[in-house]
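Annotated sample (chain length 282).
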Amino acid sequence: MSLAKSGSTDKYSAIAVEEPTAEAVCISSYPLVNASVAEQVVLVAPSDMPGGYEFAASVNGTTVTVKVPSRGVTQGDTFTATIIDPLYSHRIPTGRWRHGICDCLRYGCGNPMCWVACCWRPIALGQVMTRMGLNACGTPTSRDAYWTAFKVLALVFLGTVFVDQVITRSTSAYYLTQTDEYGNPDYSKIPASVILAWGIQGGMRTVYFFYMLFLMIRTRAHIRHKYQIPETSCRGCEDCCCSFWCSCCTVLQMAHHTADCDAYPGSCCTESGMPPEAPHVV
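Output written by the structure step:
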């Protein structure tokens, strides 16, 4: 096992090694859905390692990342290590969704995820995408990227609402005063600039709708592929149908699946929708 110091902070980080990973033995812990490992394992140290060092260990044929206890270990020591892989930290199921699409209120009406998904859906979607390591185009990106999906979607959402309200409030009088005998807008009496503003507003709303729909479909498909979840209805277009007809429930289903809400209640004001102490998902 090799260790390397990172910068001037004297922190150790893992580097590629050729020697085999440590063989681990499971100890008692809560069972995980469709997983053959527990949250903690007992293993023999393959080399001297400082406290907090992370390395790969083989547990019943599955390679996972574990963390060395704070006291550190020496080669040959038998010690208990904690599995820190997000799949196990959040107990994310594979092969099926954690909850059904209609289980929106699974954690109660006061759950932050529920409020964000219902009132500010693009922001909730951005949190899920950031949690899954996706950028504003729905493709995988670095976890350290500054312009996360959350930031981009929040700006798009707030900017669209602002511009839409400005156009609506500045032109609404023409709907009331410049009308024909049937009460419809009389476009012959309305200035061309106002008609242009309405056209911009309509185009903006259309682009915004399809952009959000595209991202929701792509994010749901990414989660299904990552956790091997098959389509159970509307085969071939389930992601599209759920995103189009049940967007609020779809965002909540993705948010609930990718976080252990019992252990880490949601947060409205973080980029991932989880509290800062929650482990990363990807």
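Annotation: Residues 1-21, 23-38 have pLDDT under 50 and may be disordered.
Annotation: The radius of gyration is 25 Å.
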